[in-house]
């Protein structure tokens, strides 16, 4: 094996397999006999990371490396190593063998790019592509002994590029198909051009009405074939429509699936470029936006020579997506076409309708306007003022309706091609002046100027007078509607062979983006600030059509905020005027006076009627004295007649404020909130919906009820208004009784809602207090069942959640042994007096133990009937208080015992020391030094005794609330003098001056008074200069005796004075003085003074020194006993 290992060394897994081959049994013989040329070629192959292959000898025995191994697939490796090439590759030997034999003869190399080779390497014949170079290898004799191959498999690139081209072609070819059938046919044509990837394809479209799938296109199969039926029944939900066509899964789930066995005995279909045909297909539903059912199905056959991997499936999914897009686009185009045809038909029907209905309107209008005009002009039975104003309102609005009917009729006849201009020679300047001047009073009443500049023209102009009247009136009316300041100018000029009419205003102007559409039918400029929102939107469109009938042109130019100018240009002769068609009518011949009157009445309606009282002006209240208390109603409408009418209906019952548009109404609401708002929907500046939205956004008006008025009838309009936040929606026309009923009902409902909101706010506050309280708060029903327990109560008693609370009864909250007391004592007292409170015990639901509480128990009674409706409790857990009280009692008992122990155990040895020391002093043989030391012992022992007494006094004061005193009658002056003498024994070198005045008799504790003198004088001596004098005085002041001790020295700082009498507090910081004081003296002085009903104070300064003043009454105050 040494030679084998040496010659076939390396090469990874394939090298190892080559070394295991018994080469002696092959046509190449033992490795040791191999020529050097073969050894070299094999060495190159095994050492390379690139796919390399060598075929050697007459049988072309094969060698290859690890990089080449994937080309052999699962079935040919490792048997191919050392095997003859014809044995390994029989399926393609007809492609390889002849070339290699030719190479052996000629020595010429072979190069092939992307060659398709059908390899059977993975259990099926596979469509593979390779780019390779086959080079001859010569042996030592110079003959071609083998083939050296370097190759790359390009299957992925070739197939991928092919599929990408198919998808690109599908998108491009179907993008502009006008019909659904055309799009389906084109999609199938593209798919048919890709048989290597899709041997066959079927496209079915779903018909929802018949629950069937219709064949819309095929490729690879003929329509009507057994595998391509023209119609398929979709499943009805209870089973498949056909066992051979399992479309149910795709239809119901919307997911694609693999159809693994096609219909037929063999399960395969002979389609596609390969002889083996195809045996499976991929069925994909084609989704439809907004629908549960798919738009159709795409069935694509799978090539048996392609691996059914994710890339193949991804391509088919993209293919289905492209077909879906083609179907959607074609359907959209068909829908657009149908919609356009429907709109055209609708437009024709609308024109016919307007024409017919306008004629029908004229008869009832004539019967309305005629009697009204007769009534207004009747001299025999004249109407009263109130009825006269009502009839004038009817007449104005009847003329307005007649104008609208005439305009619609005129426009419908224009659209139908049945209206023509009947031109007659006309003094155009005089006609135009007369029409414009008719607006003068109305324009000037609005505070505007009207300038009519129409000088005589050189000669008459042929126009249709009726149509010219409509042109001029529409333009002036439009200018007046949108002009609030400044004026309107009407001019007529002769220019060359044309007549030019200009109507200019200083109004609000037209935004530039709106100008191109200003003459469109029914177009209205959004947000235009007109005098009224009312209008049909066809006035300017009618102007353009009438001007065109005269062979002229109309243009508009405008600057927002500055005004607009409309220019009409007509030819000066009649040559360009269209003549009436034979058999058709001419102009409508509406009387000029009636047409002009309709325009003037409409313009006047945009202003407040003359003589309207100030209370009816926009924004004004109806009655400053507020004659009624029914509520404050704000009514907003841009029609003056409507404002006056509604005001007349409501003013006797309510306070009414009027507004001409939504913005004015909003400002009025901000200034004073009304109880109810009634608003028209269509208004300038701010419409009704905008007003409603703004009111709801502001907290102050968010809950004000709003009734919307609109001419839009029907359920949809009402729902839209209510959805926007309106309280009510009233459709015009409405009756006075209906309006009053709606107003009264909404005001009553608003009051109820306000009261409910107030009650809800109070309830929320109460709930917040209850939930945030640390006390138990509970409510029960009249039957004793628990209804509510706040979170603090649940935590206290161990209940979790409202359900647990509602499952309990009143008695469940008490210990079993306490329940008789609750039943027999607490509940009877509760029913009799309405409440019970005191300390009691509740039951802990977790442990069953007691929870001590301060319990407040009271009845809940109906305020109106006085009937008991439940019980409630507010209870505080006093467990912690009980614990602290017990601890305090134990502490006091312990401290009292400690005081007794300290008093006895500390004083006993000190008393023994004093007795022994005094006994020593009685001896005669005691020397001077011993006598002095014994005196020191006595002094220290007495000081220790006093310190013990002070400590016991402090403890007693803190434990018992003060020092005990034992009063008896004595002389205050004498007691203080004796105490001073004791101090002077301790300070013989210091001088204390005593001043006593008045009567000193009274009741005091002699020992305690001595403590006061001792502490104050000692303190003064300790903190004064050594050579200075301390002064003490006692005097009477009424029923009090006053003791003062004064010294000079370093003063007490002001910040220390407030805490000077606290225990363990030293009032001065003088490092040079004695620090033996523990800070109890002044505290004891204060406690002694308080025990006698008096008090102590201190004053200190650099100039005056320090003075302590003790004031005590002669006799014990009434609140003090002899022993405190």
From TrEMBL:
Residues modified to 4-aspartylphosphate: 680
Keywords: ATP-binding, Coiled coil, Kinase, Methyltransferase, Nucleotide-binding, Phosphoprotein, Transferase, Two-component regulatory system
Domain PAC per the UniProt entry, residue ranges: 836-890
GO biological process entries: methylation
EC number(s) given by UniProt: 2.7.13.3
PROSITE patterns membership: HIS_KIN, PAC, PAS, RESPONSE_REGULATORY
Alphabetized InterPro entries for the sequence: CheY-like_superfamily, GAF-like_dom_sf, HATPase_C_sf, HATPase_dom, His_kinase_dom, HisK_dim/P_dom, HisK_dim/P_sf, PAS
Entry's Gene Ontology molecular function annotations: ATP binding; methyltransferase activity; phosphorelay sensor kinase activity
Domain Response regulatory stretches: 632-747
Enzyme class: transferase
SMART domains per UniProt: HATPase_c, HisKA, PAS, REC
Coiled coil segments of this chain: 740-772
The protein's name in its UniProt record: histidine kinase
Catalytic activity: ATP + protein L-histidine = ADP + protein N-phospho-L-histidine
Domain Histidine kinase span(s) in chain numbering: 356-574, 901-1116
Pfam families in the record: HATPase_c (PF02518), HisKA (PF00512), PAS_4 (PF08448), Response_reg (PF00072)
NCBIfam families reported in the protein's UniProt record: sensory_box (TIGR00229)
Span of domain PAS: 762-834
């Amino acid at each position: 094996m040494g030679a084998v290992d040496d010659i076939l060394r390396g090469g990874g897994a394939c090298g190892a397999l080559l070394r295991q081959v018994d080469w002696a049994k092959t046509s190449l013989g033992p490795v040791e006999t191999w020529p050097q040329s073969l050894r070299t070629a094999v060495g190159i192959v095994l050492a390379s990371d690139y796919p390399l292959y060598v075929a050697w000898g007459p049988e072309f025995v094969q060698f290859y490396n690890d990089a080449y191994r994937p080309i052999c697939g699962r079935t040919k490796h490792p048997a191919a190593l050392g095997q003859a090439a014809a044995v390994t590759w029989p399926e393609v030997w007809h492609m390889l063998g002849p070339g290699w034999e030719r190479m052996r003869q000629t020595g010429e190399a072979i190069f092939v790019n992307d060659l398709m080779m059908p390899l059977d390497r993975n259990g099926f014949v596979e469509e593979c592509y390779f780019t390779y170079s086959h080079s001859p290898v010569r042996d030592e004799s110079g003959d071609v002994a083998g083939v050296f191959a370097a190759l790359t498999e390009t299957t992925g690139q070739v197939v991928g590029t092919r599929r990408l081209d198919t998808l690109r072609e599908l998108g491009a070819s179907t993008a502009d198909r006008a019909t659904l059938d055309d799009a389906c046919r084109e999609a199938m044509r593209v798919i048919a051009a890709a048989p290597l990837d899709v041997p066959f394809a079927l496209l079915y479209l779903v018909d929802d009405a018949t629950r069937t799938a219709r064949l819309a296109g095929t490729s690879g199969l003929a329509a009507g074939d057994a595998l391509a039926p023209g119609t398929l029944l979709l499943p009805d939900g209870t089973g498949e429509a056909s066992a051979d066509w399992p479309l149910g899964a795709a239809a119901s789930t919307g997911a694609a699936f693999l159809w693994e066995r096609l219909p037929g005995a063999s399960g395969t279909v002979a389609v596609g470029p390969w002889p083996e045909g195809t045996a499976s297909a991929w069925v994909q539903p084609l989704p439809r936006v907004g629908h549960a059912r798919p738009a159709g199905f795409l069935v694509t056959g799978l090539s048996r020579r392609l691996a059914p991997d994710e890339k193949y499936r991804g391509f088919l999914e993209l293919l289905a997506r492209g077909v879906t897009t083609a179907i959607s686009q074609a359907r959209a185009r068909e829908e657009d076409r149908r919609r356009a045809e429907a709109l055209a038909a609708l437009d024709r029907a609308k024109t016919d309708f307007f024409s017919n209905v306008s004629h029908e309107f004229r008869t009832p209008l004539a019967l309305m306007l005629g009697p009204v005009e007769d009534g207004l002009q009747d001299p025999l039975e004249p109407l009263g003022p109130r009825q006269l104003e009502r009839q004038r309102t009817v007449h104005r609005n009847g003329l307005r309706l007649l104008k609208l009917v005439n305009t619609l009729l005129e426009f419908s006849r224009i659209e139908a091609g049945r209206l023509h201009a009947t031109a007659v020679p006309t003094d155009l300047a005089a006609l135009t002046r007369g029409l414009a001047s008719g607006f003068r009073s109305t324009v000037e009443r609005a505070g505007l100027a009207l300038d009519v500049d129409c000088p005589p023209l050189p000669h008459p102009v042929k126009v249709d007078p009726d149509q010219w009247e409509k042109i001029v009136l529409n333009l002036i009316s439009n200018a007046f509607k949108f002009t609030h300041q400044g004026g309107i100018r009407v001019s007529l000029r002769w220019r060359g062979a044309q007549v030019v009419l200009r109507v200019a205003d200083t109004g609000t102007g037209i935004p530039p983006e709106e100008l191109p559409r200003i003459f469109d039918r029914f177009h209205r400029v959004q947000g235009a600030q007109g005098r009224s929102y009312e209008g049909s939107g066809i006035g300017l469109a009618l102007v353009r059509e009438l001007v065109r009938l005269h062979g002229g042109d109309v243009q508009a130019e405008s600057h927002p905020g500055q005004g607009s100018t409309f220019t009409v240009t007509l030819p000066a002769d009649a040559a360009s005027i269209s003549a009436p068609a034979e058999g058709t009518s001419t102009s409508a011949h509406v009387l000029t006076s009636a047409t002009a009157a309709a325009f003037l009445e409409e313009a006047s309606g945009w202003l407040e009627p003359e003589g309207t009282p100030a209370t009816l002006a926009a924004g004004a209240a109806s009655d400053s004295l507020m004659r009624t208390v029914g509520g404050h109603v704000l009514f907003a409408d841009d029609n003056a007649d409507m404002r006056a009418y509604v005001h007349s209906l409501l003013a006797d019952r309510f306070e009414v404020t009027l507004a001409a548009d939504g913005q004015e109404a909003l400002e009025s609401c901000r200034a004073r909130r009304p109880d109810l708002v009634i608003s028209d929907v269509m208004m300038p500046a701010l419409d009704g919906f905008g007003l409603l939205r703004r009111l709801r956004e502001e907290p102050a008006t968010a809950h004000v009820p709003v009734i919307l008025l609109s001419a839009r009838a029907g359920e949809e309009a009402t729902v839209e208004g209510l959805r926007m936040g309106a309280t009510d929606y009233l459709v015009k026309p409405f009756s006075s009784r209906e309006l009053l009923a709606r107003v009264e009902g909404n005001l009553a409902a608003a009051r109820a809602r306000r009261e409910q909101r107030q009650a809800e706010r109070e309830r929320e506050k109460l709930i917040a207090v209850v939930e945030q309280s640390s006390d138990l708060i509970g409510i029960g029903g009249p039957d004793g069942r628990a209804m509510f327990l706040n979170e603090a109560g649940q935590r206290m008693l161990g209940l979790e959640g409202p359900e647990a609370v509602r499952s309990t009864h009143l008695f469940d909250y008490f210990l079993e042994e306490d329940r008789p007391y609750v039943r027999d004592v607490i509940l009877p007292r509760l029913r009799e007096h309405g409440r019970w409170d005191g300390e009691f015990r509740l039951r802990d639901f977790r442990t069953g133990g007691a929870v001590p509480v301060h319990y407040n128990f009271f009845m809940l009674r109906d305020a109106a009937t006085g009937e008991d409706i439940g019980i409630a409790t507010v209870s505080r857990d006093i467990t912690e208080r009980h614990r602290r009280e017990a601890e305090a009692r134990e502490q006091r008992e312990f401290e009292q015992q400690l005081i007794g122990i300290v008093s006895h155990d500390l004083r006993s040895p000190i008393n023994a020391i004093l007795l022994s020391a005094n006994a020593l002093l009685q001896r005669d043989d005691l020397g001077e030094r011993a006598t002095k030391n014994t005196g020191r012992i006595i002094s220290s022992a007495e000081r220790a005794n006093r310190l013990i007494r002070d400590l016991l006094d402090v403890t007693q004061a803190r434990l018992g609330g003060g020092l005990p005193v034992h009063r008896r009658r004595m002389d205050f002056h004498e007691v203080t003098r004796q105490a001073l003498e004791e101090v002077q024994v301790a300070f013989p070198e210091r001088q204390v001056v005593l001043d006593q005045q008045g009567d000193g008799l009274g009741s005091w504790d002699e020992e305690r008074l001595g403590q006061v003198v001792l502490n104050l004088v000692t303190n003064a001596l300790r903190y004064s200069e050594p050579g200075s004098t301390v002064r003490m005085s006692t005097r009477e002041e009424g029923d009090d005796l006053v003791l003062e001790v004064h010294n000079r020295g370093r003063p007490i700082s002001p910040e220390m004075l407030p805490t000077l009498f606290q225990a363990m507090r030293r009032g001065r910081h003088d490092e040079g003085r004695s620090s033996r004081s523990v800070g109890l003296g002044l505290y004891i002085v204060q406690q002694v003074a308080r025990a006698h009903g008096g008090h102590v104070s201190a004053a200190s300064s650099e100039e005056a020194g320090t003075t302590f003043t003790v004031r005590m009454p002669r006799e014990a105050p009434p609140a003090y006993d002899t022993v405190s």
